[in-house]
Amino acid sequence: MSNSEQEIQQFFEEYAGAFNDFNAAKIAAYFNFPSMVIDKDGAVSFSQLWEARKNFEQRVAHHREIGYSHAKIKSLTIDSISSNILCLVQVSWIFIGYNGSIIHEFDSSYTLCKYQNQWRITVVLFH
Length: 127
Description:
The chain is built from three helices and six strands. It is α+β, with helices and mostly antiparallel strands and 127 residues long. It has a single domain (3-126), classed as Nuclear Transport Factor 2, Chain: A, CATH 3.10.450. A six-stranded mixed sheet has the order 2-1-6-5-4-3, covered by helices on one side. It is globular, with a radius of gyration of 14 Å.
């Protein structure tokens, strides 16, 4: 595994940790601006950190409501890395509830860019 691949794996483990901590500000910090989140309800774009934080406050509240305890990465595939500054990543997630049961499984696609030597999410598509 290359250094970039290790960085990306660690990035997603830490990103999951921010969700596990129910920390909207920390989740938002993993995004580049502008950025976009696309899901079954449509697309939401963020041009500033506070916009992303506000959105993730709502998502974290929803996670609490459904009994979310933590996320596990089922699989992570790096589709491509371009000049070590842009990459496409596919992640399969499992959400575990407080009682240890699986409450949700889904796949997502991420476009990451490297800004100031840090990987950041530019686009995420939940499918």
